[in-house]
Write a structure and sequence with these properties.
Layout lengths: L1 E3 L1 H13 L5 H13 L1 E7 L2 E7 L4 H10 L4 E3 L4 E5 L2 H6 L10 H4 L7 H13 L4 H18 L9 H13 L5 H18 L24 H10 L3 H12 L4 H6 L5 E2 L4 E4 L8 E4 L2 H14 L7 E3 L2 E2 L2 H14 L9 H13 L4 H8 L4 H4 L7 H4 L10
Antiparallel strand pairs: 1-2, 2-3, 3-5, 4-5, 6-7, 7-8, 9-10
Helix pairs in contact: 1-2, 6-7, 7-9, 11-13, 11-15
Length: about 375
């Protein structure tokens, strides 16, 4: 199936937005490439892939590999390909597939097919995100696979206990994986079958108490200093200056910015909750310059008119900045949000206020930042320093 020649236009607009200072020769080479690229859905070695046909040119190959490092060449089909994943579809600006669990049906006994469909339908009715639907469905399918030809409707809590023990002792699943599997099973028994007390006797494994990784204020400054592209700089500043999740940065619309009240409206955030966060005064003039220069239509950060920037692109922008700033910490773009909360706490902001700014349901989630704040450790003197 031929997906699009529009990929050419999308990539071309991305170049116009992100690479304005390239030479005229390279720019016209890119135009030639983008006008000839074609993307197809298909299969390769029993895996779903996206086939990419493009001009046979070393410059284009290098460009493809730098943007899609997992791209491979097939000698059989004389074509480039990448796995058909949500990340690659995001980058190529291809509409994500609605997850229907079809690939799982072959592994599950037909006696439980209808229950798998009920499970997916109920997730959709509850308006869960596509990524959550996929995660929950895969986790639930593992249980159905383990049951073989036994009807899941007849399963009981003792069978579940034995299965979870098997996941821990034999499969060696991590605490997070066990929690993910339990959440999916809990959803089925309590939200699909309406058995509210089904999980009372099944304990959850204790989660590892990991702490958020944060940047120092000096590292934040270095990130900003090495980022010369205004659009990329504002993306990073929105992450740190407003404490936004990467998905919230991507979903920001022009109408969400209230410069009169100096507030930003975060809509449909995690848990489908709205909130307001203050807009830093130091960013306002940059936003106005950005708006005049880039002329976004709907979303604040667009790859093309009316199309929001992808999460994957934001992650790449952050990684490039981190590498340029020579920051060796293994921290992702979410570290900007962690740093926002930690630094607010160090500046004396009340914990309950930070909770509201971050959009946490409970203040307990927010208190983790108290464990990494520098104000506690700066007052402690090591006995080594007293020698």
């Amino acid at each position: 199936m031929h997906i699009c020649n529009r990929i050419a236009i999308i990539f071309l607009l991305r170049i116009l937005y992100c690479y304005r200072n390239i030479s005229e020769v390279i720019f016209y080479l890119m135009i030639e490439f983008f006008l000839n690229i074609k993307v197809f859905e298909g299969e390769h070695r029993e895996k779903k892939v996206l086939w990419i046909r493009m001009p046979n040119n070393q410059f284009f190959k290098d460009f493809l590999k730098s943007n899609l490092p997992t791209a491979r060449w097939s000698n059989t089909f004389k074509c480039w390909y990448v796995l058909d994943s949500s990340a690659n579809r995001n980058f190529l600006q291809i509409e994500p597939k609605k997850y229907d669990g079809k690939s799982l049906y072959d592994k599950i006994h037909p006696i439980n097919h209808f229950q798998l469909k009920r499970f997916i339908d109920q997730l959709r009715l509850k308006a869960y995100s596509e990524s959550t639907i996929k995660t929950y469905t895969v986790e639930f399918a593992q249980w159905l696979y383990a049951l073989k030809d036994f009807p899941v409707l007849n399963s009981n809590s003792e069978q579940l206990r034995s299965y979870l023990l098997y996941c821990i002792t034999e499969l060696k699943l991590s605490e997070n994986q066990i929690h993910s599997r339990l959440n999916a099973l809990k959803f089925y028994y309590e939200k699909v079958l309406m058995q509210e007390s089904f999980f009372f006797d099944i304990p959850r494994p204790k989660k590892a108490s990991s702490l958020p990784k944060v940047f120092s204020t000096n590292e934040i400054k270095r990130l900003f200093q090495v980022t010369t592209n205004l659009k990329h700089l504002l993306i990073l500043k929105m992450g740190y200056g407003l404490g936004l999740r990467v998905s919230e940065i991507a979903a920001l619309k022009i109408g969400n910015i209230d410069s009169d009240r100096m507030l930003v409206h975060i809509q449909d955030a995690k848990g489908k909750k709205d909130r307001y966060v203050p807009l830093p005064h130091t960013i306002l003039e940059e936003l106005r310059t950005f708006y005049k220069e880039y002329k976004p239509v709907v979303y604040l950060f667009e790859t093309r008119p009316k199309n929001a920037i992808s999460v994957r692109t934001i992650q790449m922008i952050f990684k490039i900045a981190k590498d340029k700033a020579n920051i060796k910490k293994t921290v992702g773009v979410h570290g900007l949000r962690h740093s926002y909360a930690t630094h607010l706490l160090e500046y004396g902001t009340d914990m309950s206020i930070i909770q509201k700014l971050l959009g946490h349901n409970s203040v307990k989630t927010t208190t983790v930042y108290a464990k990494v704040t520098n104000t506690i450790f700066s007052k402690i003197k090591s006995p080594l320093d007293e020698l």
